[in-house]
Amino acid sequence: MEMTKEEFKKELQQRLKEKYAMDINDASSQELYNVLGSVVKAYYSDAWSNTWKDYLEDGQKQAYYFSIEFLPGKMLKSNLLNMGILETVEAGLADLGVSLDELAQVEQDMALGNGGLGRLASCFMDSIASCGLPGNGNGIRYDYGLFKQRFVDGYQVELPDEWLRNGNTWEVRKESKAVDVLFGGNVYLAEDTDGQLRPVYEGARRLRAVPYDTAVLGYQNHLVNTLRLWSVEIPESEEDHYRSIEDRRAFEDLTAVLYPDDSNERGRQTRLWQEYFFVSAGVQSIIRYYLRLNKPLDVLNEYVAIHINDTHPALCIPEMMRILMDEHGMSWEKAFNVTVKVMSYTNHTIMAEALEKWPVALMKENLPRMYQIIEELDRRFVNELTICYPENPELIQRTRIIQNEQVHMAHLAIICSHSTNGVAKLHSDLLKEVVLHDFYQLFPERFNNKTNGIAQRRWLQLANPKLSKVLDQTIGTTWRKTPGDLKLLQNYVEDQTVLDQLAEAKKSNKQRLASYIEETTGITVSPEAIFDVQIKRLHAYKRQLLNLLHILKLYFDLKDDPKKVQESRLFIFGAKAAPSYTYAKSIIKAINEVANLINNDPDINGRIKVVFLENYNVHLAELIIPAADVSEQISLASKEASGTSNMKLMLNGAITLATLDGANVEIRDAVGDDNVVIFGMTEREVYQYYERQDYVAKDYYDQSPVLQRILNAFVDGTIPNIYFEGREIFDSLLKHNDEYFVLRDFDAYVKAQEKIDGLYRDQHHWQQMSLMNIANAGRFSADDTMMRYAEEIWHIEPVEQYSKKKG
Ligand code: CJB
């Protein structure tokens, strides 16, 4: 995909003429962006069609990553980088008086996900292609992405995200690949002309699933995989079935909105429809493609691996069974055998409320054939277990798929797939030992760990060009392809020049963020302050509240003793709360009010500032992360399955301040105790409290004048304008006994923060710690994670010709 600067300029101007009959100077940014997009697309289109044709011709086994969320963010620069023409295009545009950065702003963030789970899926897409692996994504093309967050009087307000308003340059509508999906009605089995039992559908609703494909470019390796997102339409033949416009709208709305919940069960009919819709469309299209290989369906697993990302796509299992049996006449036993070998499943949380369960009645009514198959899967599982463990009926009751009139999606996914993995070592251990222990006893060989990873191209090369340049000058450029080579930086830990250059890059990123903060909030912040960052969804278990309590402590300390020695701090928050999660929204309001109080208090004089940036998204993360000094990873131990912002922040040289939760444990192992600040209860201690049931949050309050002052501030008017929210938070800690042990960990957290303060004062040492974090972040590359999925779960290999070109 070579292209010179002059060729690029010519092509751009030519296309601008063709499309808008305009010269560069007359075009708006949007028009230029559209045309640039079409130039880029034209450049990869050959490689795209070659890739899937090659896969087909070579009978290549492919993986399909099914996820109800993808969160790619902006794609222009990432595509340019992966094509190897980022600099050429940047320079060509500059010649024409256009800034690439400004054009890139025009692109809407593609926010078809809530948080970690969706962003992980997108990092994985990038890495699968970059490793030369044959793998594709399958999901939903929501008309509206995750809501836009605004603050009004400190409250979160949600606005619709009309990301498609100006079109989407990257997608290609594939009308000819549309498939039909059936919902509702009655299904019964009747003998067909060939003597086989086949389902007969009565009164089912037929909807059309139309795919929109997006190219997923590998990093400079000529490989282009596909992210296929499905959109609903009403087939012409069905028009008569709609009695009114409202009736029609209800079905058209199927792919309208992304459910804005994160780690929370959503028992709504539309959500169930969404799940079946993209699963059925995806599996049907895989089978259709497979049949072109002219291979028998009972060796499907030699050519196809389907990954179930969390339980939302778990209906892949009964849908595959349906297609194999109902449409291709396979026996139950054979179909089950193949299905298990094709499917694999990742669990992303141990939070009980996130473990999906669907009421039997709802499933029966909306997806009758799915329910019949699930019921049979459950019946056979129970039969088998009754034979193997006749003495243990409780085990059967605990593990069966249908319990108490509910379908347990995780049970379905584990029982009917060949692999279940957690997303960090601690999380996978907890799955085996506690949360899924029964299943681990039944199927020990199915359980494995795959620690999450991040696409280092986006989170370092694109987000932090300043640091990237220092790295190129210091250790060469191989880290760009092989993130493990970042390790070479360790050799410079005593090199003052390199340390100064790293500090300079950080400072410049802090300045960039400071300007953004000033522009968007009007708050002036000093780049000299410690930039202390907590960016993630707002959730009680992630304990943004603990951060806030500590901020209040610093505030009161400075009020009491204005001469107290303390580094200046800027506390930065970025977080969306699910619209229905009132407690999380109260915390947002409280943080905003505390920010107002502190930022405007002349006694504090800017020594502490608090900024809650609106509308945290991938793009904002790219701005915040390179500027961070401190990475707050302070969830209650055992609750954060992995975390991935922790990896992005360390990669950009922030020091992790963390509990031993999720992947923080592995970050500690990677950088060593001296280069991370750990505090708080271990997961074992948390479980001991659960066993003994002897946590009394109020004791901590009663015994600590410091905590009394801080907590009282929520209800005595010290923090203004939070009459209801303050009471809710106060009661959550004292009346409802502090579910996430905030008060129990408070003292340890304060000490850890004091340690951070002391470490930062010794700038030389701080820079050394920062360097060690960058140097050891390579192991969290999603490339490595994907290679492990490929080898150990999907059994696919990098395509030879691409890996050669890559090498
Ligand atoms: N996660 O973002 C979500 N949504 C869910 O519904 C369940 C889990 C997160 O997934 C990330 C990717 O594995 C994890 O890093 C994170 O800890 C987890 O909360």
From TrEMBL:
Keywords: Allosteric enzyme, Carbohydrate metabolism, Glycosyltransferase, Pyridoxal phosphate, Transferase. Gene3D superfamilies: Glycogen Phosphorylase B. The modification N6-(pyridoxal phosphate)lysine is found at K648. InterPro entries: Glycg_phsphrylas, Glyco_trans_35, Pyridoxal_P_attach_site. It comes from the Bacteria. Its cofactor is pyridoxal 5'-phosphate. It catalyses: [(1->4)-alpha-D-glucosyl](n) + phosphate = [(1->4)-alpha-D-glucosyl](n-1) + alpha-D-glucose 1-phosphate. Pfam families: Phosphorylase (PF00343). It comes from Enterococcus asini ATCC 700915. Belongs to the glycogen phosphorylase family. GO terms for molecular function: glycogen phosphorylase activity; pyridoxal phosphate binding. Phosphorylase is an important allosteric enzyme in carbohydrate metabolism. Enzymes from different sources differ in their regulatory mechanisms and in their natural substrates. However, all known phosphorylases share catalytic and structural properties. Allosteric enzyme that catalyzes the rate-limiting step in glycogen catabolism, the phosphorolytic cleavage of glycogen to produce glucose-1-phosphate, and plays a central role in maintaining cellular and organismal glucose homeostasis. Its EC number is 2.4.1.1. GO terms for cellular component: cytoplasm. Transmembrane segments: none annotated. This is Alpha-1,4 glucan phosphorylase. CDD domains: GT35_Glycogen_Phosphorylase. GO terms for biological process: glycogen catabolic process. PROSITE patterns: PHOSPHORYLASE.
